[in-house]
## 1
Amino acid sequence: MTYEDRLWHVPEDDLRAYARGGLEAPALWSADTHLTACAHCRAVLAGFGDTVALDDAWERLDAELDAPRPGLLESLLLRLGVRDHTARLLAATPALRRSWLGAVSAVLLLTVAVTAGHAEGGRPTLFLALAPLLPLAGVALSYGPRMDPTYEMAVVAPMHGFRLLMIRTVAVLTAGLGLNGLATLTLPGYGLLALSWLLPALALTATALALSARLGPVLAPALTGGGWVALLLAADAVRSGAHETLAPFTAAGQGVSAAVAVFGAGLLVLLRDRFDLNRDPAV
């Protein structure tokens, strides 16, 4: 007997089996087709279902549909074993987005082109001056209510504020220093001098992080970057010739940069608890 012979309604026994998932083909196919057009049978079917389980299923479906799809960086972090909330916080870091990394790459390419154009008898001064500032700018964008779009989520995240800062700092430094390193490879004619940006970059970053415990994540990097520019201008004013290496990039200057980096890192550890005290969105 077909469903047409039964006045176009699915028998209650079949509807009950359908609700339990026990109705087999071909009756299942007929019931599926009939239910799409019959409000009466859908109403009867609703009475056989577990309303609590059905509501839970809808809630899970809504949550799945509303949840943002992980991007390339977040998916990679999850595959590497990073916890989902940590991966989400890292993936939302402005300095790890393609727009920021693309802008940094463009600046480095332009700087390398200018430096290479003055290679004969010159020094990579422009590149060495700019390279330490790019990781510093990336760190400045990685934490704080004004720059971080997920700051409110970070405030309530189940992790120490200092740990979150370090996670993002390491990620940003890895990306920034990696781009700087690739740019350095395009300047083989300068030898080790082309790598003399590395210690100043670490010194500036450590200093800015230590100062941000008191001055905030925007003002501290801004003052640190301004101090670096002022130092370069002063070094340029006192050097004897245009082709002489600036003091921060000499052996003595590299030693000072290393000492500042170590001192800044130590001070940062001593002040680590302040990053929890300052996790106020109004800061």
Note: The chain has 15 helices and no strands.
## 2
Amino acid sequence: MRRAAVVGCGDISAQHFAALGAIDGAQLAAVVDPDADRRAAASAAHGVPGYASLGELLDAGGVDAVHLCTPHNSHAPLAQQALERGVNVLTEKPVAHTLADAEALALTARTAFAERGTQLGVCFQNRYNEPVRALRELLDSGKLGRILGANATVMWHRTPEYYAARPWRGTWAGSGGGLLMNQAIHTLDLLQWLVGPAVLVGGAASTRALAGVIEVEDTADLLLEHTTPDGGNVRSVFYATNANGVNAPVTLDVVTEGATLSLRGELTVRHADGRVDVVEEAGVLAGERSYWGASHRLLIEDFYASLGSGRPFWIGAEEATASLRLIKDVYASSYAPGEWV
């Protein structure tokens, strides 16, 4: 049984606490948070010791893995610290708040795995959604012909109060970006994972609804060129905003020679011959946080299954850097040097 600690007891930590209480092979052993009230509440709720810092936890020993649910700018340094002490790391997205930090962390992770078998995983849990996996399997099968193109949208709503509640979210130094880093990175990751590795053809990011409230962008559009599994090249378009009136369903469409595949929570496959197939998501969160999806548990379970297996977890630092690189390329084309990180 692997002993785990959740580092950072904010909103997303609830997914990690729930998963650790439901899966085999891991159990919660500690919580870490610099905020004394939040730390005490989590410690009492889960009946485990609380620590003010990762360093205190590592000095105390007794954990095999840490789950990083902290602000973006702390992901890479905390992961480095744990890996260098031989402790496995599962971090929330993004893998780092700067590209340089992500590349340095990837090197540390490769060394840690080669020398000690220590693992690093990144939470892109939407890859585990049943409709997403069905879409990937259909594309991989070749039965639908060549991919012709794709598009995706993330049209959500964030208020000034959302950023005031966690001020790091609206800053370059704390978050490394805005909408693209906090909300849309999951869909951007899916787009390049499903269609193929991508480079930015053109894109722009700007602050349209929350100017004067946040430093970072609330709206962005991208044109990407993907290298498909068959060696071809196709384009996709991506639009995202936090200026929508509501949190609308994320959309992702892939068009092939034989069908149009549409993700709207469920997957709808409209074949060229008129047939329509639907794959529904087995587990769906309800309420305000439904856009998180229900696949954290599946990813976390898979991460623990990889420990000691001799194979690296498949969503590691290098894999997670692909979408981060696209985001930073958009920032480079949208802002002057020194305006972004």
Note: The CA atoms of residues 121 and 316 lie 5 Å apart.
## 3
Amino acid sequence: MKVAVVGATGYLGRSVVENLRSDGCEVISLSRHPEADGAYGALEADVTMPNLGLGPSSMDALRGTDAIISCFGSVSMETNPESTVGLHVHGTEHVFDLAARLGTVERVVHVSSVLALGRAEGELGNRELSRDQSFRNWYEYAKYRSELIARNERRVPVNILRLGTLLGPSRPDIIPLSGGPTALLAHVLRGLPLALVDRGRFPIYASDVAIAARAINMMMKRGEYGITATYFDPELPDLCYVLEQLSRPWGIFPRLVDARVPTWLQRIAARRLGVYEELSEYSRPLMTFGRDILTHLGDLALESRPDYIFETGRVLRDGGVSFETGGLAR
């Protein structure tokens, strides 16, 4: 099976490529930095450009592509609408345009995020997307818009997989530090108190990046299409536990306190303490999923690898990541 992976040299993309190759697939890696792949079939591509900026020779290399996996884009809570929404919306449109143009693509797997649901209330399942919700930041809105595009695509068959916050060992230089709990590491490792509702004892839907890659492979192979599924660690580690495990390699225990102040006051405190204001929005529980949310993944063994959260911190520490006044430095 010939599979093109868009965003192949990113944190998730690398795991996806590795999983596909170990499964015997012929993989074409598409990214802005193809040299980071270092394997045959790596092509330079830019999702912000029509046709991904691919020239005739690159299009020839894509002839006969059976499936496309779209997993481009990194998590950042500081981004503006032009860069974030433009990247995800136009990028998703361009990926589907390419799939339709190739003519041989039998399946596109669009990687979405649980954050596409924003502040949606009530018990949520895989079918829900538009619930008159508001959004904490432009990243959430961008993921919502891009999933909406994927759901409305009619030229090629599409399956959608929503993922939670990705964690797990990888190359230290590609593990994101700008979004999710890793963005709080600089604050926690400096020994500063972090105010969280109920001291962070609520799930953030952490997802083992290696299992997420397997789930994507499974979604690609499914005989049905038009499916939306969700993957996160079924053990539901809470934010408190995640921060404890991430900071363990440094021998530091997070100072987490119960937040009993309004969100606007938390944002002011976060600014003064050097924490991204946007992350203060995640100091309280996110959405609530129904008990059967993971069933669409079928027989996939969802159990995460032992110590995948701790190993993320260890790789960052051993990779030279240090915490300084202004944040984390590689």
Note: The first strand starts at residue 2 and ends at 6.
